[in-house]
Amino acid sequence: MEDSQPLHLCHVHKPSLIIHRSHTILHSIAIAFLIHYRASFFFHNEIGTGGVPTLPWLLVFVSELLLSLIWLLDQAFRWRPISRTVFPERLPEDDKLPSIDVFIFTADPDREPTLMVMSTVLSAMALDYPPNKLHVYLSDDGGSPVTLNVMREAWRFAKYWIPFCRKFRIQKRCPEAYFSASADDDGDFSSSEFFEEKEKIKEKYQEFKEHVKRFKGTLADTGGSTSRDHPSVIEVIQENLNEEVKLEGRAILPLLVYVSREKRPSHPHHFKAGAINVLLRVSGVISNSPYILSLDCDMYCNDPTSARQAMCFHLDPNISSSLAFVQFPQRFHNISRHDIYDSNLRSIFSIQWHGFDGLGGPVLSGTGFYLKRKSLYGNFVQEEADPMELKKVFGPSNEFIKSLHQYNKPTAITYSRDSSNTLLEHAKFLASSTYGNQTKWGQEVGFLHYSVVEDYLTGFTLRCKGWTSVYHSSSIPQFLGSGVTNLNDLLTQGTRWSSGLLEVGISKFCPFIYGPSKMNFLLRMCYGNLAFFPLYFLPLWCLATVPQLCLIKGISLYPEVTSSSFIIFLVIFTSSIAKHLYEVFTTGGSFHSWIYEQRIWMIKSISSHFYGCLDAFMKRIGTREASFLPTNKGEDDERSKLYEKGIYDFRTSTMFLVPMAALIILNFMSFFGGILGVIFVGNLDKMFVQVFISLYILVINYPIIEGMVIREDKGSIPLSITLWSATFVLFFLSIIGIPFFF
Hints:
Elements: E1 8-12, H1 14-40, H2 54-74, E2 82-86, E3 100-106, H3 114-125, E4 134-140, H4 145-167, H5 175-180, H6 192-218, E5 233-237, E6 255-260, H7 271-286, E7 291-296, E8 300-301, H8 306-314, E9 323-327, E10 331-332, H9 346-358, E11 369-372, H10 387-394, H11 398-404, H12 422-430, H13 454-464, E12 468-471, E13 479-481, H14 487-505, H15 521-532, H16 537-543, H17 546-553, H18 566-586, H19 591-606, H20 608-620, H21 637-644, H22 654-681, H23 684-700, H24 702-709, H25 719-736
Parallel strand pairs: 3-4, 3-7, 4-6, 9-12, 10-13
Antiparallel strand pairs: 1-2, 5-6, 7-11, 8-13, 9-11
Helix pairs in contact: 1-2, 1-18, 2-15, 2-16, 3-4, 4-6, 7-11, 7-12, 14-15, 14-20, 16-19, 17-22, 17-23, 19-20, 22-23, 22-25
């Protein structure tokens, strides 16, 4: 590697930087005028003498302050956006590349289809990387015998699939994606040999799929185990040693290991963080690679060169010593052109994470990252470290303690095909439900157990310890997963994320008080925005109710259109909308994308953010325990048809539907009440802003109105929900009356 040939380059987005910073300054000035306007009210002569009542004015003022604060934190992501270019061809020869352990996680074979999981496993085994330096581990938290048996079949199919991919330089190495693709994959398609082999592989794949169906239909768990109560099972998937297998040298397969950790109802298992820590220990005594690729079970390897791209950063001598991980964006293969649920996470991976990278690197994002193993071991592993002290931190396993001193020497611990069962028995001990007790696992080493958003918390604490990270996005997605395509999963997932993030924000790990004082404050703002953005529910609930109630009562909370102060609100509104439109258009979105994002932001704020924050506070005071339910990765034909047509599926929990329906009804009543007031009183100039707020909410959320009163399909909002919500609104109005405002 020559000094004149860097492995990667960094590009600062100067035009975007200038636009973002200019907008931040101008918008901040407008907010300052708004604060002055609102604050001056409290020094006005009309307080308590029949003017505008104080309480609604105060509520709106506090809401505007909180919105402004969250907006200000969000601007840190836009302060210095960057992108990166890599040069994998400049990497060392294959024999000098470090080894990689691939961790894949599944928890529920009913919600995460086995065939999809195996597609991810096969795509990881087929990465463009030396196979003897690639080790694939599947963590099956459900302990499903179906998953184990199908994994054995996947190994047999891999004997044909991987040589085929390497021989013809296939780019799309997920077999399900490859054989269902409408366009030809990049590869050598000119020879008749290719077409013959492709047909043979296709037949093998169909046989594999039939095996999957047979196992799912006939295999039953007769051992009395359940997904929450089962012993540890670890198996190295390999050939029957009595069979004679004829494979060319190029067909050497990566090591494939099935891991199902022990789970008992009497012992906390700490969700995904616990599963990751088990794989860290088990892989430590089997392959012990210095780098780890973590994947969700639905996130298959779309670009086989992702490992080499990551090594362009990890092997750069200028940054490698402090680099903890390389994060790739989450992209999805099942998103329709409408993307009505904002499942692409455009703002996060096309805007925020580029700015995060410009400030020192993004947070861990759940999946699709290449992590340095030793970054998770803290500062406990030193050459002169006392083994007994290490056991207090990492547990009593002598084999694992030995591996700690050899993580920079991945060849020091290897797993041979003819090794005895002793190592596997020891690995089962490492995967037991009690191994981490009385140790630092989940507290100071490994992934932290404190929150269900273990990726965010662990990434933040790594940064506090001095580690950095890198974000790399390219035109070809490195990984493709299954995005959320129905409202129920979207809101369930949003509730879990909101709860976990706020739980961190109100704990000792609060980004504004935890970690070294010298940490870049802009970086703290980024972490703080992620931790506290669920609090959006407070201002949105307030602004969706208080101005509307005041409109019904004929109380103005905003300046008249003819007033010079009206310009403040006009500038802030148009500035926000214009900036959002600019970001949507510059990242490949459309006007409809902007509408979808506005709508989902409102829906999630008044439902999943609200319940998530409530859940976080309840866990904080000890009245509720953490829970985790994976989103459904399976396909539902009826739901899929609605999604492809761009129609919302409102088959979700009543607790999500009632707030939506109630607020729509309230805004409908306030809008038409305001119009009647304009007609009979002639106060449009005075009430224009409040009438506009109600109209804006109704227009953006028209699909909810449609689901309540127009649609009659199964995905519509049930009449009972509409009636219940209307009753609640009327009851609420009858209770508050005029005394509420004085």
